Each structure stands twice: as C-alpha cells, then as structure tokens.
Amino acid sequence: MDLAAYRASAEAFSSELTNAYYRHFAGLDAEYAIEPIYERHAELFDRASVEGLRELLGTATAGSDERRRLTMLLDFAVQGYIGQATKDIEAELARREAGLSLEVQGEVIGFRQSTVVQANEPDAERRAAIERQRLEATDEHLNPLYRELISRQHDHAALLGYGSYREMCQQCKGIDLAALQAQTDAFAAATKESYPVVLEPELRRTLGLGLGDLRRSDLPRFFRAVEEDGLFPAGRLVDSLLETIRGLGIGKQQNVILDVEPRPNKSPRAFCAPVRVPDEVYLVIAPVGGRDDFSALFHESGHTEHYAHIDRQLPFEFRYLGDNAITESFAFLFQHLVEDPVWLERRLGVPDPADAIAYARAHRLLYLRRYTGKLAYEMELHGPGDSLDHFAERYASLLGGALQIEWAEQTFLADVDPGFYCACYLRAWALETYVRSYLRHEYGPAWFESAEAGAVLRSLWSEGQRLTPDELLAKLSGGRLDFGVLVGDLGLG
Known about the structure:
Elements: H1 3-25, H2 35-40, H3 47-59, H4 65-99, E1 101-104, E2 107-110, H5 114-119, H6 124-159, H7 165-173, H8 177-191, H9 194-206, H10 219-224, H11 237-247, E3 256-259, E4 271-276, E5 280-284, H12 291-309, H13 316-320, H14 325-336, H15 341-348, H16 354-381, H17 391-403, H18 421-443, H19 451-462, H20 469-476, H21 485-489
Parallel strand pairs: 3-5
Antiparallel strand pairs: 1-2, 4-5
Helix pairs in contact: 3-4, 4-6, 8-16, 9-16, 12-14, 12-19, 14-18, 16-17, 16-18, 18-20
C-alpha cells in the first residue's frame, strides 16, 4: 500500500468534502454535491484500503506517532467506507431538507428556518404548532431516508467484520464507550434531584412556565433567552469576539473567513468549516439574536482558532483527523466566556450578571442531561440487532426521562450524529472544565486578557489532534479525565 499517495488523496478528499459542506450549508450552493467527491476518491474507502491499513496498524510500534497516524487513518477509512455506502442518502437528505417548507396557520416557513422562527415566537401555542408541523414533515419526508441511512451504517459495519456499529466506533476511535456511559449515568443520577431546582426558576423567569408545564416546543425559545437581549447587543457580537482574540495576543488572521451574511437556505446551526488546515478556515453563523448568537459564535470561534493555529508542518492525520473531543473542548472553552461574569463585565459592560449566570447554569445542566440521554440511547441503537422498529419509543423514554418532560418520538433517527459524536461532546465538556480551571488558576479570572494564556492555548492548538484528551490533560496539569468533574463545576457537588 502506497501510504504517501493515500495520505495525499485523503487530504484532498477532506478539503473538497468540507468545502462542499461549507458552500451548501452556508446557503451558497443549492446542491450538496458530495457524490462526485466520493467518486473521485473512491480508492480511499474500498475494502482493500481498509484491510491494508489494518495490516499496517498491526505491525506498527506501540506508542509511536506512526501508530497514532495509522489508527487515525484506519478510522478515516472505515468512516469513509460507511460514508461511501450512504453518500446518496446524505445528499438526498440535504436536498429534501433544503426544499421542505411548513405551513403554519397560513404562513409558509422553510424547514431549516422553522427552528429560528420558533425560537423568536413568544406565543407558546404557535411554537407548538410549528413543532408539530416540523415533526410531521420529519416523519413523512425524512425518516424513511434516515432509516435507510442508519440501516446501511449497521450493515456495512457488519461487512467489515465488526459485531455492531457501536463496536466499530469504539475500536476505531479508541473510546471506551461503556466506561463513559458509566460516568454519564452517574452524573445523571447525581443531578436528578437538583435539576428541577436549578431549572425551574429560570423557566419561570424566561418563559413564565414551570417544569411541569414545559413542552419540547418551548425549548428553542428557552435557548433563545430573549430576556437577555439587552445584555448581548447585536452591535457587540463580532467586536467582542475580536477583542477577546486580541486579548489573548492573537493578531489579524488572513486564514480565517467570518461568514455572517443571512441567506434563505443558510443552516440555522452555526459551524466551522476548516477547508484547508490551517490556511482556509470558515466561521459561519446565521444570526438569531441575543445570547444565542454570542454563544454560537464563540463556540465556533473556538474551533476556528484551533484549526487556524495548527502547525502546517504536521502530517495530514494530526491536522484533520484524531479525537474531536479535543477541538470541541476549545469550542466549549470560548463558549463558556459568554457566561463568565468577568468577561460579561469587561466585554459587554454587564454590571450585575446574576440572572445571566443563573440562566447559563440551567441551560448547561439541561444540555448535559440531554446528552447523557443521547449516549444511553445511541448505545442501544447502535448495538447488536437488526430492527429499528422499537427505538422510537425507547428514544422518547430516555430523552424524556433525562429532561423530565414529554419527548416526541419522530426525531428518533434524525437526532443521531454519525460516529458516536455525542461521546466527543460529553468528553469535551469535561476536558474544557479542566482547561478553564487551569487557565484561571495560572492567569487569573481575566485569563482571556492574558497573552501568556494565549501562548498556552496556541501551544495546545498547534498540535492539532495528535493527543488524546487524557494526554492533553496530563500535559497541561496532570490528572485523568472524569465526567464527574461537571457536578462540582455546576456547584452541585
């Protein structure tokens, strides 16, 4: 196997695919044209390539960088093998989703824009009507495709010799999913009683609802946090980010492109698109307004700064591949600034951030519990077995139980990211807590104004994703990653 040629083709493929993702979900291209990209690089993801990489990995020296690279390449090849088998469905899902519209009480709303409209809707019954229409559209138009997508993922994992899709992800990514679930289940148990105590006051303050009256359709409005718009003025959105980056000693970045232009088919979900790492990195957001804009922009800017500072001399694998819990931890580090009282005072002039901090705590606890439920669900969904038929009810039970509200069944397949990405988020939330604690301890509460703290971050960013989360933590401060750290970080321990 010609590894040099494989790596060059893999980098070209990654760049082309990310560019296609950027252009479609930024609303620039109507089509999500990924099939031709897969066809141009089909040799990357055939069975021969997967088996060749398995053989090479088996002979690589334990603990060597070459073994790290081959482990990442095998995961890339396996995920690409699955992606090759599902590319037509993914493209059709994107086309269908972009073309869907909902009719709600006489108004036509684009499917992708419906969550934005819902978040800005003050009337609870209209929010529920929008959600009903979106759920119906999901069930009728998208779920048949999602069902085929996940079935193919499972079938092709079996064709590669894995006992299940879950086993495939665990082996290829080197994540002990069962151990992680044990930690997240313990977190869910430890916060079960305090969850309504933390959440209820914020629901009443922001929505005028108690937890017993809360519906899933109200959550976008809760996340929108319209009551905090005065604290998060639109005119300070980009400037506050640029000031924060400059405070860390980071100058003008020609390799970063900020895309905040509104477009009809632009995805409401903010994202970072590292097209050429580190030389061409897009930061994309579709503004909704208020706190949520700040939170989304800062989260994606954490990704952006990470990718933009990776050493361009690193091999392809360390610049593009590896454990995404690393880049997500930097995203959460920046996002957390939006709920930091010192940052709020210095960047937005908020004299009394008590309400903003209480809201952020409730918001974060809700999200953490939601993802503990997602992991538990996906561990079952992607385990051994052939039928998807009973998982809708199981999904609603696990997610509804985690959030203590009634949960709809219709998104039981749409609410699943490939490759157990929920595990990246969960470990990233824990890792961010350690990194933030270290920066505060070493450089003070205003660490975001310290060029020395910026130098530490740039040093970590420069390594791309060569290290595992445990290795990064050991390098930074010692210790071992434990999701339970979040109980104390939320003031619940």
